[in-house]
C-alpha cells in the first residue's frame, strides 16, 4: 500500500511540474517603451520586458536579430528588465521583440514593439472639417498636409494606447472619423513619414470637441494600459493549476487510505467472527454427550 501512495504522489508532482512548464513555454512576455514608442531624434528611451516571476534571462531582438541579453536584478512578481537606448536614430528605430528563459525553457516571443524616431522631416499641418466642435453622431475628417512631398501620414490621438492610423499620400491625406461619440473627444496630432519608423516633427495639436446627445451613454476608452497584469495572471494560473493537482493527489490518497482502513476492519471483523464461530462449536462439542 505504501508503494502505491508513493507512486501516486510522485505522479501528481510530475504532472504539476510538466503542466507548469508547458504553461511557461506557451506564455509570452510583455514589451513596451518608456517614455513612449515615439522618441524624438537624439533622445533616450528604455525598452522594458516583463515575464513570469521565475524568469532568469531575457533576450531582445531587433528586426529579427538578437540585439541584447539581460538578467533581472530583483526576480519576483514584477520581473522586469530594461534595455536602454542612449539616443534614438534611424539605426535604432524599428521593430523589437523579447523572450525570456525559465529553467531550460524559453518563452514564446512578445508582441512586436514598433519604435519610432520623430523630428526627421518638416512639420505638417493638421485641420479638422467641417469644424472642431460637432455633435455626437456627426462625421468629421482630419486633413494632414506636408509641404515637402512624402508617401505616408499618421494620425494619432494623444494619450491613447491604440496604434496610429496610417494613410498613403503625397502632400495631403484625409482621415475620416465617424459617426463620432464622446469617445472621440481629445487632442490629435499628425506626422509625415517615408517609412513606418521614421516620422516628421509632430503637427500642432487639434482638439476635437463632441457634444453629448441625451441618448449617448458611450464612455471614452481607457487611456492607460497596464503592463503587469498578464504576467501576474499567468503566474496565478500556474499556481492554481499546481494547487488543483496537489488537491487531487490528496483526495486520491485520502480515498485509498480510507479504503485500506475499511479493508483492514473488514478482515479483522471476519477473523473475529470466524474465531467466535469456532469457539462456539468447540463449546458445543464439549458439552454434548458422547
Instruction: Give me the count of strands.
Output: 18
Based on helices, strands and strand pairing, what is the structural class?
alpha+beta
Mean pLDDT: 79
SSE ordering: HEEEEEEEEEEEEEEEEEEH
Indicate the low-confidence ranges by residue numbers: 20-24, 216-236
What helical percentage do the residues reach? 25-40%
Put simply, the count of helices is 2
Tell me the fraction of residues in β-strands, as a range: 25-35%
By CATH, the architecture of the domain at 26-118 is named: Sandwich
> What would the principal axes of the Cα set say about the shape?
elongated
CATH topology call of the domain at 26-118: Immunoglobulin-like
User: CATH H-level name of the domain at 26-118... which superfamily?
Assistant: Immunoglobulins
Provide the gyration radius in Å: 34 Å
**Main beta sheet:** 6 strands, mixed
Distance linking N and C termini: 50 Å
* CATH structural class of the domain at 26-118: Mainly Beta
Signal peptide: 1-20
Keywords: Cell membrane, Disulfide bond, Glycoprotein, Immunoglobulin domain, Membrane, Receptor, Repeat, Signal, Transmembrane, Transmembrane helix
GO biological process, one term: immune response-regulating signaling pathway
Organism: Lynx canadensis
Amino acid at each position: 500500500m505504501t508503494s502505491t501512495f508513493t507512486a501516486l504522489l510522485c505522479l501528481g508532482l510530475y504532472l504539476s511540474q510538466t503542466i507548469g512548464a508547458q504553461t511557461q513555454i506557451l506564455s509570452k512576455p510583455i514589451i513596451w517603451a518608456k517614455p513612449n514608442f515615439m522618441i524624438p531624434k537624439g533622445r533616450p528611451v528604455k525598452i522594458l520586458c516583463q515575464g513570469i516571476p521565475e524568469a532568469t534571462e531575457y533576450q531582445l531582438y531587433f528586426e529579427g536579430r538578437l540585439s541584447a541579453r539581460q538578467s533581472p536584478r530583483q526576480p519576483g512578481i514584477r520581473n522586469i528588465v530594461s534595455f536602454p537606448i542612449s539616443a534614438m536614430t534611424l539605426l535604432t528605430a524599428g521593430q523589437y521583440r523579447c523572450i525570456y528563459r525559465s529553467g531550460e525553457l524559453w518563452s514564446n516571443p512578445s508582441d512586436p514593439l514598433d519604435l519610432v524616431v520623430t523630428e526627421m522631416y518638416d512639420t505638417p499641418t493638421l485641420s479638422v472639417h467641417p469644424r472642431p466642435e460637432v455633435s455626437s453622431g456627426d462625421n468629421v475628417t482630419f486633413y494632414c498636409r506636408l509641404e515637402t512631398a512624402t508617401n505616408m501620414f499618421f494620425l494619432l490621438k494623444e494619450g491613447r494606447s491604440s496604434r496610429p492610423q496610417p494613410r498613403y499620400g503625397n502632400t495631403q491625406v484625409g482621415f475620416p472619423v465617424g459617426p463620432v461619440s464622446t469617445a472621440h473627444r481629445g487632442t490629435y496630432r499628425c506626422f509625415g513619414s517615408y517609412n513606418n519608423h521614421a516620422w516628421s516633427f509632430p503637427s500642432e495639436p487639434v482638439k476635437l470637441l463632441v457634444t453629448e446627445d441625451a441618448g449617448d451613454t458611450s464612455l471614452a476608452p481607457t487611456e492607460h494600459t497596464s503592463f503587469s497584469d498578464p504576467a501576474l495572471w499567468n503566474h496565478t494560473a500556474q499556481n492554481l493549476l499546481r494547487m488543483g493537482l496537489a488537491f487531487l493527489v490528496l483526495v486520491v490518497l485520502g480515498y485509498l487510505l480510507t479504503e485500506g482502513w475499511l479493508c483492514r476492519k473488514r478482515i479483522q471483523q471476519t477473523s473475529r467472527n470466524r474465531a467466535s464461530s469456532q469457539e462456539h462449536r468447540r463449546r458445543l462439542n464439549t458439552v454434548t454427550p458422547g
